[in-house]
Task: inverse folding
């Protein structure tokens, strides 16, 4: 079954833009020619095989691999010349060697990956392996393109003879230029080469006094360039030697051209393989730029394109609104309505262009899970078809195109009609449009049509073969949304569009009055439905926002639950350790007291020992109760909403605080007196105590406010001291060991505060130290340093007394 695509359809849909984008991604001229002539494939099997090749190329592209085709030159004309005995220029021969080496390198590269790209490897096998010829050509030329002495022994010998003659002539001329009697007859003391002969500049007045041959003269005639007679014989020998060199160079070029001519057919076959592989890599790059996928197509009859984006708009790097386009079940015609400039034609041409790309085995810009039939023909009428040369008006030309489409469309055809029957009386135009669409559906074609005609919008309510779709219009922003909604008809919003482009407000207002009074029932129903849809969309958006907030809250609660369980287990372990230590201490003390009781006969001493024993028991019971209270006072989940002024519990301080400032992820809280701390919100949880009541008496409240401001100006509760520990540059485990020894020393010395300098870095060392301080028994409280103290790069610590 041959694919039928008219030139008009190709121009309407802009398929040439896609091919040009493909050609721009090729690296060789044969590849670009092949891309621009990319054909439509007739069968599903051909499309499947071609897309399998594209999939292999995309696999290599995703691995950041490309074939070594750099420097490949189009040598088809040059190779044809060699088959007729022609001799190539050195540059052409060098390009031939590069092409032969590209064959070898490309085959080797694909051979290493043949398990992943077997089809591409099969193409690469068409490249001949002519390494010896490539090396021979490469050996014959220098990097600057000159024929090398290595090309042949005869050439080297002829060049050696030439170089020797040059040296002899220059030596003889140097001697002459040191002869004062000879130099006095020269314009200047130098020699040059004219017409391949060595000459000296002789003043024309001394022409008769210098024996030699004149080869040239200056423009004024005052200087004659003469070859001295004594040099003529050497000059003749040099000319003969140079002719021998040229003859040997020609032999080298003839030899190499002859080798290429004998292998021309194989090289041309390899060049065709290079073009095909180059085109495949270009398709892979284009697919990546389009973020394209291959829809299901074999045996598919229903159209279902998910998140379709117009290929040409994507290639222009525009912000494209993706839309779902579907014709499933009994539906065979999609009637797209809505405001002008709202995206109706974009939808129409986007679907058509994707149909052409799929027939050409190019992935299309849709999401995975899309389906699209392989249409055997695509027909379109988009834009103004007026033809003055044929005496046709816009409407007449439009009808002629509809006639032609009806004549050729049939099963497997995709028909795209923009603004069907629009340029005539609306009632008669609607009648023509309905009749044309019914005829096309009778022929089993698939039709996409854009319209403003109410009668066409109503077809979907009477005939299941028709399906409405509309592009949206935001009445608040007075602009189209470019979003396609399947299953609903849209209003034209012509008056809103006119107002948007600058039609006077009074004219638009009058037009609205006339429209309301003249509109039919369908127009009013559509207006009401549009308003209802807008309200539903607003409610839906609110529900989505609420759902996102609920999901975020759920995730946060889950995180707090994990932290809650971790802290509970930690406190249980600490409780067990404390109980064990208390038990060991009590046992030791009891043993000592019992031993003292047994050895003592003094009643007073016995009474004191009993009192001490009782005191130790009471202290142990108090410690046990305190440990139990701390164990079961586990952090509750954070409150659902944190806000300024909330009374919450801070796990680091171990007491309730008030939130003074709140930002994303952190909060500033009261840390006692006038001191404030910035802490992560994850360290805040439900309060353990009630928030202190504010003063009931205004005057007292003012006094307290004055005291509070005075306190804020006073030094903070924990001030930085000269008792410092610098652990910058340490690993976390080394730093913690040093900090622990530092705090031991501080406790022994009776220090009240300390400064730990850890720096900023990645934050890992700072977090490890503050986690340790939060669990340390030496620490009463700690806070980050103020800006004058070193900022967050230091931690200020208050030691327990």
Result:
């Amino acid at each position: 079954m041959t694919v039928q695509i008219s030139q008009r359809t190709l121009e309407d849909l802009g398929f040439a833009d896609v091919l040009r984008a493909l050609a721009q991604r090729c690296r060789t001229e044969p590849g670009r020619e092949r891309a621009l002539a990319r054909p439509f494939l007739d069968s599903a099997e051909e499309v499947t095989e071609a897309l399998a090749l594209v999939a292999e190329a995309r696999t290599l592209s995703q691995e950041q691999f490309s074939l070594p085709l750099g420097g490949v030159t189009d040598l088809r004309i040059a190779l044809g010349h060699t088959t007729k005995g022609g001799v190539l220029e050195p540059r052409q021969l060098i390009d031939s060697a590069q092409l032969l080496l590209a064959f070898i390198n490309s085959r080797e590269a694909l051979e290493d990956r043949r398990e992943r790209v077997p089809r591409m490897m099969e193409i690469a096998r068409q490249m001949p392996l002519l390494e010896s010829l490539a090396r021979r050509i490469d050996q014959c030329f220098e990097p600057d393109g000159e024929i090398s002495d290595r090309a042949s022994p005869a050439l080297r010998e002829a060049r050696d003879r030439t170089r020797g003659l040059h040296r002899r002539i220059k030596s003889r001329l140097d001697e002459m230029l040191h002869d004062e009697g000879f130099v006095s007859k020269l314009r200047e003391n130098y020699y040059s080469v004219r017409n391949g002969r060595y000459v000296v500049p002789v003043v024309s007045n001394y022409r008769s006094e210098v024996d030699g041959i004149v080869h040239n003269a200056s423009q004024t005639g005052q200087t004659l360039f003469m070859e001295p007679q004594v040099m003529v014989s050497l000059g003749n020998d040099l000319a003969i030697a140079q002719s021998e060199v040229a003859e040997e160079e020609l032999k080298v070029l003839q030899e190499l051209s002859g080798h290429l001519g004998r292998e021309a057919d194989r090289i041309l076959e390899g060049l065709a393989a290079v073009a095909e592989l180059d085109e495949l890599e270009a398709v892979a790059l284009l697919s990546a730029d389009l973020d394209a996928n291959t829809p299901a197509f074999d045996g598919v009859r229903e159209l279902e394109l998910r998140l379709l984006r117009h290929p040409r708009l994507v290639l222009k790097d525009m912000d494209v609104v993706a839309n779902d386009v579907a014709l499933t079940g009994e539906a065979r015609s999609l009637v797209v309505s809505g405001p002008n400039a709202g995206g109706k034609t974009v939808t129409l041409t986007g679907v058509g262009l994707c149909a052409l790309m799929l027939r050409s085995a190019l992935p299309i810009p849709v999401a995975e899970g899309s389906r699209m039939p392989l249409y055997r023909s695509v027909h379109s009428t988009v834009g103004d078809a007026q033809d003055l040369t044929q005496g046709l008006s816009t409407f007449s030309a439009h009808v002629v195109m509809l006639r032609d489409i009806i004549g050729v469309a049939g099963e497997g055809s995709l028909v795209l009609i923009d603004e069907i029957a629009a340029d005539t009386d609306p009632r008669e135009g609607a009648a023509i449009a309905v009749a044309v669409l019914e005829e096309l559906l009778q022929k089993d074609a698939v039709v996409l049509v854009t319209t403003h005609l109410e009668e066409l919008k109503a077809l979907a309510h009477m005939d299941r073969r028709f399906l409405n779709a509309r592009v949206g219009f935001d009445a608040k922003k007075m602009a189209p949304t470019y979003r396609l909604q399947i299953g609903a008809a849209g209003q034209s919003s012509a008056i809103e569009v006119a107002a948007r482009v600058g039609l006077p407000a009074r004219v638009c207002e009058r037009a609205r009055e006339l429209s309301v009074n003249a509109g039919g029932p369908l127009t009013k129903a559509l207006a009401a439905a549009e308003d209802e849809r807008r309200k539903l969309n607003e409610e839906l958006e609110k529900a989505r926002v609420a759902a996102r907030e609920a999901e975020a809250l759920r995730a946060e609660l889950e995180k707090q639950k994990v932290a809650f369980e971790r802290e509970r287990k930690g406190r249980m372990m600490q409780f067990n350790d404390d109980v064990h230590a208390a038990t060991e201490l009590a046992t030791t003390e009891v043993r000592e007291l019992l031993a003292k009781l047994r050895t003592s006969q003094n009643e007073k001493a016995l009474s004191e020992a009993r009192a001490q024993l009782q005191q130790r028991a009471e202290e142990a019971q108090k410690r046990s109760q305190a440990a139990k209270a701390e164990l079961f006072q586990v952090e509750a989940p954070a409150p659902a909403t944190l806000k300024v002024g909330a009374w919450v519990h801070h796990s680091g301080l171990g007491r309730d605080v008030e939130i003074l400032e709140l930002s994303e992820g952190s909060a500033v809280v009261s840390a006692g007196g006038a001191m404030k701390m910035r802490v992560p919100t994850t360290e805040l949880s439900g309060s353990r105590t009630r928030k202190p009541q504010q003063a009931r008496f205004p005057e007292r409240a003012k006094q307290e406010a004055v005291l509070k401001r005075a306190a804020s100006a006073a030094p903070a509760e924990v001030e930085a001291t000269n008792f410092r520990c610098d652990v910058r540059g340490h690993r976390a485990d080394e730093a913690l060991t040093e900090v622990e020894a530092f705090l031991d020393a501080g406790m022994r010395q009776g220090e009240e505060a300390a400064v730990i300098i850890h720096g900023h870095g990645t934050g890992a060392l700072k977090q490890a130290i503050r986690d340790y301080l939060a669990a340390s028994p030496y620490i009463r409280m700690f806070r980050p340093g103020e800006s004058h103290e070193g900022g967050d790069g230091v931690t200020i610590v208050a030691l327990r007394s």
Q: What stands out?
A: Residues 97 and 135 are 7 Å apart (CA to CA). The mean pLDDT is 82. The chain has six domains: 4-130+263-288, 150-257, 303-519, 535-632, 647-713, 724-799.
